[in-house]
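Much of what follows relies on a compact textual record of a protein's fold. A record is reproduced here so that you can trace the correspondence yourselves:
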Amino acid sequence: MKRNQIAGRCVLAVIFVYLLIQSSYLYYDMIPSAKEEPWKDFACLFLIQSVFFAACIFAVLIFLFWQQKKRGLTSPFAALLLVNSEGQVKREVALRDRHSFLITGAKNGKDVFIESIHNPDSDRYLYGVCNLVKGRWYFEVLSFGRPVGLKKGCENIIYRLKEGMPYPLAAEDVIYMDTCKIVIRE
């Protein structure tokens, strides 16, 4: 899919450059050398068409560039599911319009919360922080008092995370904290 998008953008860029060259050729060579009125009108018509198509393709390229930049600022995941020790989904937290958040827990370790980074609850234990960087989520453990684990994709191994090291998150990853886990939903 990504290869097709890049190929399409390259084709648009080549057509845009071709139309620019054609426009300059028509303007500087064809129109001045046309002696008769119908040929001059004909060359002017081609010039106007070339400039119009070049402007349309330029607008499409700008729109695609803007979409790509906007996509880098939005979350690739739809939500996080907070699952308790019995396997029940306690909460679903939407990730749209979020760029960072804290993962905290109750002092007894039986519940996990996702809070805003700007106003966290001071009575809770701080597990870590998630940040969105260029369209990708990273999780970083902030305290090592309680173990935090990460199961990557389809692997059957849960890795213990180290403090202060950012870990990239994928759609199949599961974060384990005390008796709870966080499942990523696309």
Notes: Residues 37-72 form the longest helix (36 residues). The chain has a mean pLDDT of 81.
